[in-house]
Amino acid sequence: PEGLQTMSGSIAESLAAPVDVEEPLMLKMKCLPYMVRTFGIRNGLAILEKSGSEAYDRYTMNLFKTWGVSHAAMEQWQPFFHAWGLYARDLLGNDQAKSTPSSNGIPALSTDTYLDHLDHFSNLYYAGGLKGKYDSS
Questions:
Q1: What's the pTM?
Q2: What CA–CA distance (Å, rounded) separates 23 from 20?
């Protein structure tokens, strides 16, 4: 999907600065888009639902620190995760949204449907369609 390609491409570009990189780190960077989608987005849904967006922000920052992502990349990506956290929290906290598809036909947000939501969210985020709604403050 286009939004995921944009997300993956942007992560790769932000981490492509010339540095002395050891082989294990290079493997980690190749896996980063998967790690972001799986651990940051999918697994983060439980934290969002149980503890809210502030706990999710801490969770994603801890992931980046654990993965050894540069400070510059963290600063670039934390607004994306913050906005996703608010977007997903709104869907997870709404009983009607939990049980019915959205107006754009995406099934209710869950660990089974998060990629559909991530694609939709990424397209909106990178097109500027969420300005003012989920900005970091």
A1: 0.73
A2: 10
